[in-house]
Structures are given as structure tokens and as C-alpha cells.
Amino acid sequence: MFLRVARHTNNLEKIEDFYVNILGFERLGGFEKHNNYDGIFIGKPGLDWHFEFTKSELEAKHTFDEDDIIVLYPKTMSNYNELIHSLTRSNIEVIQALNPYWNENGKMIQDPDGYRIVVSSLKAIINEIE
């Protein structure tokens, strides 16, 4: 099975910059004026999932709460530290998670649309122990 997480945005350029240049994903493809939508695919090559972000003349109206999050698990501590350094260098604010588990086991940030993302070192720590 393949997974695509698709989301409409009002800020396609900011979203691409954030997910590619700050979080370290890659632009896998894109399209323009497909049924009046422009879009981009962002992820990592060779994986069975990716994000799709679209923009159209219709305004995106996001509805989410504080427990709606995407969790990113870098594979190594080096990857984790590089990502945290990228967030710091880009002045991305770390915010408090509603669920205390994520405050203890990760750092929560928001993307340009306000969606919450947790960067956790848990899998990297396990990978380095094994």
C-alpha cells in the first residue's frame, strides 16, 4: 500500500521552502493548472509515502486541534541533531504540546499553515543502541 497525505494551502511556496529547505525533504514532482490546481509532491525518494500540497483559487480553511500532529523520527542522532540545528538556524519556534508525552520525547513546531509537527529522537536512540 502507498500513502499520500494531501492538503490544500494558501502558501504553496512557503510550504515547499519549509518542508524542503528546513525539514530536509525533497520535491518529488509537481503540477500546474491541473483542473485549476497547482501542486507539489514532497517526501524522500524510494519510500511508499509522500505529502501532496495543492493551491487553487479556493481559500484553504484549515480545521485542526492541538493533538493533530505529524511525528518525524530521524533515523540517527546525527540526522536528529542536523534537523534541530536547521530549525534553530531558521528561527522556527519550539512550542508546547498539549500531550505531555511529546514534550518529554520530542520538539513540537508548526509549519507555515499552523499544522503541528513533532521531531522526536526516540527511533534514532533505539537505532543507535541496536
Morphology call = globular
CATH architecture verdict of the largest domain: Roll
Number of helices: 4
Let me know the CATH homologous superfamily of the largest domain.
Answer: 2,3-Dihydroxybiphenyl 1,2-Dioxygenase, domain 1
Strand element count: 7
Low-confidence blocks of residues? none
Helical content class: 25-40%
Largest sheet: 4 strands, mixed
Strand order of the largest sheet: 1-4-3-2
From the alpha carbons, calculate the radius of gyration and give it in angstroms.
15 Å
| The CATH topology of the largest domain | 2,3-Dihydroxybiphenyl 1,2-Dioxygenase, domain 1
Oligomer: single chain
Task: Quote the beta fraction.
Answer: 25-35%
How many separate structural domains?
2
Q: What's the end-to-end separation, in Å?
A: 28 Å
Describe this entry's structure for a reader.
It is a single chain. The chain has helices spanning 12-22, 77-89, 100-105, 122-129, and strands at 3-8, 26-34, 37-43, 49-55, 69-72, 107-110, 116-119. The protein has a 4-stranded mixed sheet with strand order 1-4-3-2, with helices on one face. A 3-stranded mixed sheet has the order 5-7-6. The two termini are 28 Å apart. The model has no long low-confidence stretch (mean pLDDT 95). The protein contains 4 helices and 7 strands, in the order βαββββααββα. The longest helix has 13 residues, at 77-89. Strand 3 and strand 4 (49-55) form a beta hairpin. The chain has 130 residues and is of the alpha/beta class. 29% of the residues lie in helices and 32% in strands. The chain folds into 2 domains: 3-55, 2,3-Dihydroxybiphenyl 1,2-Dioxygenase, domain 1 (Roll), CATH 3.10.180; 69-129, 2,3-Dihydroxybiphenyl 1,2-Dioxygenase, domain 1.
